[in-house]
Design brief:
about 0% strand, mainly alpha, single chain, 5 strands
Amino acid sequence: MKHMNSEVKEERTSNKKRIDLFLVSIVLIAAFLNLFKIWTDEYANAYYTAAVKSMLQSFHNFFYASFDPGGYVTIDKPPVVFWIQTISAKIFGFHGWSVILPQALAGIGSVLLLYVLVKRTFGVWAGRFAALAMALTPIVPAVSRTNNIDSMLVFTLLVATWMLFRAVRTAKFGWVLAAFAMIGVAFNMKMLQAYMVLPAFYVFYVVATKINWKKKIAFLTTATALMLAVSVSWAVVVDSTPADKRPYMGSSQTNSVLELAFGYNGINRLTGNTSVTGSSHKQPAQTEQQTASSETKQNSNSSADSSQSSNQRKSSSSQKMQAPGGGNQNGMFNTGNPGPFRLFQKGLSDQISWLLPFVIFSIVGLFAGVKFKGSYTTKQKESLFWLAWLLPVAVFFSIAGFFHQYYLIMLAPPIAAFAGAGAVALWSMYKQHNGWKSWLLPGGILTTAALQVYIMSPYVSSIGVAPIAGVGALGVILALVLAVRKQRKNSLTNYLGAAAMVVLLAMPAYWAMTPIIYGGNSMLPSAGPDSSSGMGGPPSTATNSKQSGFNGMQPPGSSSGNSSSNNQMQPPSGSSNGGQMPGGSSNNGQMQPPSGSSNSVQMPNSFSNKSSSSKRKSGGMNAEVNQKLLNYLTKNNTGEKYLFATTDSTSAAPYIIKTGKPVMAMGGFSGSDPILTVSKLKAMIKKGEVKYFYLSGMGKGGQSDVITWIKENSKEIPSSKWQSTSSSAQQGPSGNGTLYEITLK
């Protein structure tokens, strides 16, 4: 026994002196997946990039996270991540990659943190495998390669986890306070989503700390109070500021941060209720779902090959473009239908669920023999923490009414932790012939390989039969061989176990590289052979798997010239001339053109693809400005504060990014915010703050009175003066639209 302890001490000393080449390799893999080619994304998510451009211009804009330089409306999220992005842009210059960089580094940091968290208790190999599983979880690099918030959110929550684990080990209350305060910081990144980990924090602290119940309750109560104080600190300041002294709180209906937190960014995500409650006309809101789907279509073909073959055009034009949720079996944005097996459905399983069966077997092994009454080992306590993170989040995504695929990154840490800890635990049980537990390793390998075959099967036209058959065959063979060799102890068995782990990570690794291979979508990031479309579902029957759009189809009005009557847009329900896609479509899912337009809708400029360009303008909004329009507005500006006003952020963002000048998104992000009234607009025009208005069919929401007044009291600017005839700038900043001018004395 003494000899064994001596060897362990020598090994630990040796490990401290040596560089962990396995970890270095894993970090390099993560760095490649998160950083490679981010410099080709010129605008990233243009909605957020425009905000960074605005925040660079004044502390007022910086503090409130103003979408536009004029401080008219904020973005729809709290500011902490955008503060970090703005600092990055200040240091490195304003570029797409400089606003993505913080998230990419956070993705790499999460891999390292998970290694540290798992290694200390479960061993170095568990830490390595957990870190590798985190790095190769497809949705992790897909999100980290954008300026969306979630990668930074997960990193912050893992920092909080490290603090909590340290609090338990050191028995110091200060670390408990720090851990919960960090969750408060995370709240100021994405609001209630940060609180998803609270069950894990409470359960773990109660179970793991060796103090009496009075102290536990007192400490947790104090830490929770601090967390809440940090969480609402920015909200209280903003909501206490007079409305005329700050921007309108974007995507809220009452100009309140707290309403945004607990409504639009909170309970509504669970219920799926995203209708406008503050609109006097009670028209359906052009909500995030609708705008994002419209923007995805606008963006999705920026990286597609514009020279479609005639066969592809025929295949594409013969199909009907399906609105998200419009009778589609994969639900809104391909997030499946609510139910206990939702995470195994198409569109979600290929983002996060590759290792879920192995994780389930790991959980069984790690908790085998645990008694409800009695002391728990450190491994069991930390396993309970990861389980209390995994289950509530998995339940949320199984029943939630509305979320995007990239939110699933919240599941990545517990899945990766169980994959690492479970691999070592199941291997040990297998080697020790530990009764029924020794069958968990072969069983986990077999069922995981079967699930991966199921996940890949819809993509057979894109990836071919070979990888699908290879994973299935190797998984079955290795599981069976390990089952047969259970009684043998030699190096061959070790190699077989290692080979099985490689097989289970092979296709997740490929999926994690798809945003690099096929191009990503910064508005709705997802992984897979259709990653550039942002819809993350199985590809269409089109032969070119790199084609973007809804299920790989070329939308109408694109530069390829495909304008089939089957591919038409339908206005939002209740809108007279809508253009943004509703959450569900009528007419059998067929999209109709906006009222009053031709059947072949000319889509925004981002459909124009310049294959020779090295920059990928995949901002989810118009990736280019109409230079002729910009020249006209600049030339005829007579001192107005705003270059022009438009219905929503889709049209405004590229012009803010291009010029740094204020552009008014009258209805906020999606055009549904009740910001503007006719009387307020009249006052702004009389003060000389704005005189040009670009109106398309998009984003009416609750501002129909304002739009009607603009049309009745303005003169229309002839399109020949501002519309570009080039295919790369189709009809103004946002598709079919009209430019108006109003001057009041």
